[in-house]
Amino acid sequence: MTTRKGLSLFLAALAFTFTQCKNETYQTQSTTETTATATAAPAQKEYKYETVPDDPLNARIYTLDNGLKVYLSDYEEAPRIQTYIAVRAGSKNDPADATGLAHYLEHMVFKGTTELGTANWQKEKEELDKIEALYEKYRNTSDEAERKKIYAQIDSVSGVAATYAIANEYDKLLSSIGAKGTNAYTWVDQTVYVNDIPTNQMERWLELEADRFQEMIPRLFHTELEAVYEEKNRSLDSDGRKVAEVINTELFPTHQYGTQSTIGTIEHLKNPSITAIKDYFNKYYVPNNMAIAMSGDIDFDQTIRLIDKYWGGINKGEVPGFTVAQEKPIQQPIVKTVLGPDAENVSIAYRTPGINTRDALVVQMISNLLYNGSAGLIDLNLNQQQKVLQSYAYDTPMKDYGSFRMTGMPRQGQSLDQVRDLLLKQLDMIKKGEFDEELIQAVVNNDKISTMKAYEDNRNRADAFVTSFIYEMPWQKFVNRREEFASITKQEVMDVANKYFNNNYVLVYKRTGKDPNAQKVEKPAITPVAVNRDAQSDYYKEFMAKDVQPLQPVFLDYKKDITEAKLKQDIPLLYTKNKENGLFQLYYILDMGTNNDQKLGIAVNYLKYLGTDKYTAEELQKEFFKLGTSFDVFSSGDQVYVSLTGLDENFEQGLSLFESVLANAKPDQQALNDMVAGILKARADAKKNKGVILQQAMVNYAKYGSKNPFNTVLSEKELKAVKPQELVNIIKSIPTYEHRVLYYGPRETDNLIAALNTGHNVPAKLKPVPAEKVYTEIDFKEPTVYWADYDMVQAEMLFLSKSVPYSKDIIPVVRLYNEYMGGIVFQDLRESKALAYSTYSFYAPASKKDRANYLISYIGAQSDKLAEAMAGMQNLLTDMPLADANFQNARAALRNSISTERITKAGILFDYERAKKLGLNYDIRQDVYQSANSMTFDQLKEFQQKYVKAQPQAILVIGSKDKLNFKELEKYGKVKQLDLKTLFGY
Fold this sequence. Notes:
Layout: E1 2-3, H1 9-17, E2 32-36, E3 47-51, E4 60-63, E5 69-74, E6 80-87, H2 101-108, H3 121-139, H4 144-162, H5 169-176, E7 180-186, E8 191-198, H6 202-212, H7 221-236, H8 239-251, H9 256-259, H10 266-269, H11 274-284, E9 290-296, H12 300-311, E10 334-340, E11 345-353, H13 358-370, H14 377-383, E12 390-397, E13 401-409, H15 416-432, H16 438-454, H17 458-470, H18 475-479, H19 481-486, H20 490-500, E14 506-512, H21 538-545, H22 558-561, E15 563-566, E16 572-577, E17 583-590, H23 598-607, H24 617-627, E18 629-635, E19 640-647, H25 651-664, H26 669-686, H27 690-704, H28 716-721, H29 724-733, E20 740-745, H30 749-759, E21 784-789, E22 794-805, H31 811-832, E23 838-844, E24 852-862, H32 866-878, H33 884-900, H34 906-917, H35 925-932, H36 937-947, E25 953-959, H37 966-970, E26 974-977, H38 980-984
Helix pairs in contact: 2-11, 3-4, 5-33, 6-12, 13-20, 15-20, 16-24, 23-29, 31-32, 31-33, 31-35, 31-36, 33-35
Organism: Pontibacter locisalis
Signal peptide: 1-21
């Protein structure tokens, strides 16, 4: 899955985990069809809609006369609405000779229309037509010298066209009205456009979206195409993505799921067709192939009328049919190897049926029986017993087929084949029925809990609609999926496992090494184009001039929003009531962490491998899972969080079980030996992870020097000298220190206090926490460039500047600066100069009042763009450009965003925790909101001159030694290589 602004694969995959509704048959249940009539205007058009009994979303599903599907759910968590506009067209619909087209198109849909994003459409169109014709000529020319000439023409004409374009005007409009999360993603079956909008801006948003989905203008095409090149290069630097691509290619040798990737081949990326993109848009972006999904603070009748007003007049179209390629059975294991710098692992993948089949639902059950993070066979037999470093399993539902995958990482000295055999053994146990039948019921119960949690968020509610629409799953079937899931029997699990999981798998060994087939998309010669920051289209001016009823902000009042009480031994209790469902969250928080005691983190990690005097470690996990509760102990540098979450009806039982774990953990020498060996292997693997190297190791080195919080760890000798009882004693001591208790749940105060006083075991007198080791933040006295060698296509850079300590007085201007500079950096480095797919800059306030703020700026680019990328970022940091339109947008965005933000649920408690760390006793957003309208650009400039411009920098660079331009690096300061031993401390 690829996205316009870097929506990660993980988050996109997560969006599907709770919507895996995969059944072919369902119980007959009448779908209610109702007619909505506005009582105030009886002559108005009447709208029929569908509802489903016992629907937790209380959804209404409408179908407009032109075929547009509309899914609505009223969930008033805040005066905001999560929106998705879904198109039933993804990379599987790409022409075979133009892969990546759906993804190209996704980017183009953000470029405006014939009215939005242009200063003179007629003149711009003349140049865009020339560019389109040149690209057709370019892709049909094979002579390289001639191709270069044609591309030079494209570049030249694009520069002229850009003088009429107004870059990023769509994004400016959305940010100005307080929209958040403006994005999109393309995957195999779908393209989905995302916005989280304020309720009072719904009509403006609907009109804007209706306009942009009626016409696609390939504006600023060649610079945006370069951003896609960078996105492709990022994928080529990802071992995980390379493994996934190999798996899909081998599982689906005939179907488009495997024959073409979402982002496209290098050859097709380098030879795009604007004509083909337009044709694709006209075929698939029609209302009868699209849906609007909305969940939030909405009025059903008003919303459907507005949608019909702006979308109902769009003509439907003839959507091309899709013929599903029939895959032949895999007869024997297909074995592949992927090489790259990351740590080694092995993956086993199977082809499974499409999402709408009953068997696919059973595959989901099998996936949960194997791995659910708590009590699956892989959880208990491999991870909990430390037979591998880490392992997991999951299923990926798609329309025509699906896939099931198990992945494992080896321990030190363990071969990938040994990991493979252990994974296959767990699957074999499923096939033979060697698991407790009650585990099925536990999976069902926890599925209900996870769904309940998911539906506390409008994103998940609206995404459920997207799943229903994209996979052509009737809403009644979707709603009934939990009941269908609960009906799965043990015998059915065994039958399906034996049907699909045999020697018909793809086996991929991910080994550490240099990839001999490494590729990259070469950088074409691109001249930066104008972005016309201060220009405004007539459409933009009219849009902004429309009156909207303003919404008033709601700020937290900690004294009113949080109930404070005392437990025994004067333990503070902070409580916020859950008025929505029967779930609870309980936390014990200690203001001590690994900076107080290095062994604390080791002890916390050790706990999950231990049993008690009553239960084995495996039995404990099963007991918690059966209760619908889970526990966790987390340590940071300065805090320990002990948490218990789950069904409040089982609160006392869960609390008793959890307290027994803390009080009666049983030492286990073998578990400790295995854990220490695992830690050492994980440390070695971390040195192969470029994200850890840059974002953690190098950043900590720059902030604190060679001895810092990241690399201050127990040595191998010290680790091996730790005794089991020593760690158990640390675990038992956690509740004996001064701490506080946070609770979010449905209980009344008196009942909660009584339950905690009975169940929370503490001594008669609590001990003060030991002193924390404080790491001194170093001053950047001279500009320095730190670099680390890593085998990669791109180079990634962080510009880091230390600023003043935290002060609440500058927070309003900090928020405005970040809002303003976010758009400026994106416009300049991506849209104008096409230097990066991902780039950002922000001033980061400290998380504690005695710590410094930092300016952090990032850009990831091809190594041969290093000089331009560094110069581009440095110029913006040194001379912040004045763009009045951007500034006005930033101010409006800040106020509109805050006026519709609502901090709720457990978030209230943790916002209070954050405020206390900063010495605040009120919601700091009040200051930002009150200042936003009155702040001037001069104030912003003053802030930039004082805290950003010419501040001493540390520039952190990670890239391949043979690709980095060290002469360029030397222009920015003394260049120093950082070896991994120095960075990691081992």
